User: What shape does this take?
Amino acid sequence: MSDVVYDQREVRRSRYAVAAVFAVHGAVTGSFATRVPWIQDHASVSPGQLGLALAFPAIGASVAMPLAGSVSHRFGARAALRGLISLWTLALVLPALAPNLVTLCAALFVYGATAGMADVAMNALGVEIENRLDKSIMSGLHGMWSAGALIGSAAGTLAAHLGSDARLHHALAAVTLTLLGVAACQWVLDLRPTEDEEPPPRFALPPKSALLIGAIGFCAVFAEGASLDWSAVYLRDVLDSSAGVAAACTTGFALTMAIGRFAGDAVVDRFGPVRTVRVSGVLAALGALLVVVAQSAAVAMTGFALLGLGIAVVVPLCFAAAGRSGPNPSQAIAGVATITYTSGLIAPSAIGTVADATSLVTSFVLVTVLTCGVAAFAGVLRTSGRQSGGKVAPADAKVPDPRP
Assistant: This one.
């Protein structure tokens, strides 16, 4: 990327702008998730057909994410992020318009493709800002995503409670979030490739470094998906808890995960990414083990809370490590994102398959093993330091014009 020197005020301002983009991205996800029942009824699809359709966002993301690096190289980081986040927010309207299974699958493919490319662009820019600030910010950025998702889901819950048409709800949300995303992008660093920097391939397989880092992200996202989708079922079916207690368990998991992300940057700056992820993996494994051995709802809820706290910082640190693992950060981040999206896709069904064959308790033995893997292989996140394409200048430094 460009070796333009930015002063600290610009870099800090860009950090907050990218944080806002993360929140916008999360708000789209939260807005969509709360209206899935309405979308199912409107498209007249069965539960099995809905499950098939809901695989298409991950498929679309996996196909499109490797293209994000080429887009950023061609248009520059600011324009690329502005365009990709706008495509993602506007894609929110598509699923609610689908009248049948085929159109719903197509809409969700586009929805996922735009989500994945925007995801790569904002994470790549976040890593670059982290490098220029020389302190951890990725965990907090992902915390902002979680906050955005909570806000979007709260608004969607209210819309569903009022019985509003999801087409109208999503149209209004899309316009609002697009305006917010575009406004935030005005303040991000306008990073551009140097003249001698070769453009990345339009489509490339993940580099080897991304595979190793992505393996840790895979384990963490598997545990996240299993907990979000199955924690309430676990308390209801295994521990005979009430519906209210079961729902509170899922909320508690999401809350501790958000808290862990907002607190994570200070911990990473104090102890470093490897030690932080190693301890986080141990904490998550302890939580999963508590879930497995729990004989009461209180113990299981404590276990799920520890799981959320333990895996909170893992994926943000995987993205940060990927962005510093080679000459092409976007390609490496796209590789890690593809692996984690795949994990999120297969986790819920894998838990269900194991539960059908054995028991739901056995399914969470698998989660325990995977969280142990996070702790065991945390060393692959070790990097030689925060290297950036540019240096941070004093606040009163004269800054070259970044425009070509």
